[in-house]
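Let us practice reading a record.
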Amino acid sequence: MNKKDNAYWRDKLSAAAYQVCREQGTEAPFSGTLLHNRETGIYSCTCCGQSLFSSINKYDSGCGWPSFDAPITKECIRYLNDNSHGMVRTEIRCSECDSHLGHIFPDGPSSTGERFCVNSISLLFAADN
């Protein structure tokens, strides 16, 4: 894992991206720029650029954040127990730089049964050429 200190991330990221990606924050539902993106391409980590999700796996879950039924590879995501805010959840992070992405829930489509609920600000999108 590629670990950088907080000063590096504060310099590289906007205040909003730092709050979500490095301090495990959450953007407001239905506010993210990638929520309604319908282009085909790859979603990668805002912090380090590692490829995380394909548009093939994106779907509209109605939850207010971009949702995917699977990552590009199982190895690109790190899973952590999250008992914050009086809930029991599984946090998802980039396996390369440890950036907070969002959470995974067991209420996804029948393809995998999983919903990767991801903050738009933690993702970069590159459209297919």
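A brief commentary: The chain has a mean pLDDT of 94.
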